[in-house]
Amino acid sequence: MTAAAPPQAASQRPAPAPARIRRPAVPAILAVVLIGLLALGVLVSASNGAFAIPLGDIVASIAHKLGLGGAPVEGTGEGVLWNIRFPRVVLGLLVGACLACAGTLMQGMFGNPLAEPGIIGVSSGAAVGAVAAIAFGLTFAGNWTISLCAFIAGLATVSVVYLMSRSGGRTEVVTLVLTGVAVNGLAGALIGLFIFYADNDEITAITFWQMGSLSQATWPKILAVLPLAAVGLMTAPRYARRLDLLSLGERSARHLGVDVERLRLHLIVIVALLTGAAVAVSGVIGFIGLVVPHLLRMAAGPGHRALLPLSTMGGAAVIVWADLAARTVAAPAEIPLGILTALVGSPFFFWLLRRTRRHQGGWA
């Protein structure tokens, strides 16, 4: 017969758990901040330049176009705003969004924060196509020839890298990276060969294209790249959960039902579409796909459901502000956008490399 419990024991209840302090939703806060930076960047970029346009006139012109009242900008300002400034801003939004989203997918696919779209040869392959079109004077597609050649060459390069790194029905990450390095080296040699046989005018055009710029932005170019960008940007979030599972390791992801090989193939195709479309209309703009996703990953965490849209917005905002700086810092001259992003991105890459080596052992 068991002893009866003391009278005070029956009245005792577990101590209530302390009230849970809810931390602010960091991704939501970041989204609001990025949207604000993006909207402000669009207005400031459209306002500043050789022909200054007041912000109030820009807002009134936009409202007028939307049928919400307002009035067009007086004189030549309306034409400058809608035929020069806004095409450049919108193209910058698309290019930045594509590069940053592609970088996020690459880092998730390789499981390494040092990965970026150029590692599988998309950018260098697109550069070879564009340089070849300039050096050989190709005009089969009119004003679209260079962009078309760049896009096709970028997709072809990715296909070659993937096929060469595939063995026994599988593609190893290390083999994919090393193959991309080799293809990038070959692409650099081909570009040098084309430059060697080009004349002075062609060399000038090749050099300017390799430095990256949005100065040739037009509404037709935007309409050409918009479908590809829309397909890539709308498809990428569908892979967020599988990317999160892949971050646990390939073996764990397979046990959880992820077809790793098919996932990798799909991601490579999306990255090729996004990067090829961006490079074809803007030239080579580096470090956006490396810097933006990693900064946002450190701030918002590794979950791709939030990281993909945040990186897309962040890349668009960075390009808009960087292009504004490229146009105004050395006015009336214009600094090539690719040079400006490299000047800022290179020191960040060195810091990121040291940080990654200290915490993770580098490319382990």
In short:
With 364 residues, the protein is mainly α. The protein is built from 15 helices and 2 strands.
List the helices and strands and how they pair.
Blueprint: H1 7-11, H2 26-47, H3 55-65, H4 77-110, H5 122-135, H6 145-165, E1 166-167, E2 170-171, H7 173-197, H8 200-211, H9 219-235, H10 240-246, H11 250-255, H12 260-282, H13 288-300, H14 304-328, H15 337-360
Antiparallel strand pairs: 1-2
Family: Belongs to the binding-protein-dependent transport system permease family. FecCD subfamily.
InterPro entries: ABC_BtuC-like (IPR037294), ABC_transptr_permease_BtuC (IPR000522)
GO molecular function: transmembrane transporter activity
